[in-house]
Amino acid sequence: MFCAYNSDMASGSYHAVSDSCGLDGNLTITVDPADEYIVYVSGLAAIEGHDEDHGPLKMIINEQDYSAIAEKTVLASNLIPWGYPYTAYNYQGFGELNTCDGTYIMTFTIGIDQGTWGFMILYSQRIN
Q1: Is the C-alpha dihedral spanning 118, 71, 125, 82 positive or negative?
Q2: Are 106 and 70 in contact, with CB atoms under 8 Å apart?
Q3: Lowest CB count within 10 Å: 29, 41, 120, 128, which one?
């Protein structure tokens, strides 16, 4: 069942969980003021304890089926404070928005300049 798109239901405060990576925390999704089908996700790297000094992650929602594409976006310039000599910590992926309750289910590839290390499935439930 599809509900009509409502940018208020596609944005706000979210609780995000990934069983595959042990990620569990809050993030914020905001709507682009020029295009209601573009949203920005802030807080993904911060949930993992990294300094999120870049981003936010840009996601484009398809107007026809509410699928979502997350453009490759650097979220943290490096992971050196955590003991890793890696740079350009980034996310990219795909998924869908449930327009009835504002839930996103996304599959992300996580990478750095030095390569990628797989993917995670992230479930994000709107909390306000």
Answers
A1: positive
A2: yes
A3: 128
Which residue shows structure tokens 């404070």? 81
pLDDT digits (tens, 9 = 90+) for 58-105: 999 999 999 999 999 999 998 887 777 889 999 999 999 999 999 999
What distance in Å separates the CA atoms of residue 56 and residue 28, rounded to the nearest whole number? 10
E strands, the chain, are: 12-18, 23-32, 35-42, 57-61, 67-78, 87-98, 103-112, 115-126
Q: Rounded CA gap, 18 and 3, in Å?
A: 25
Q: Hunting for tokens 């089908």 — which residue is that?
A: 37
Nearest to 56 by CA among 32, 35, 87, 23: 32
Q: How far apart are the first and last CA of the chain?
A: 22
Structure token pair of residue 101 = 């309750």
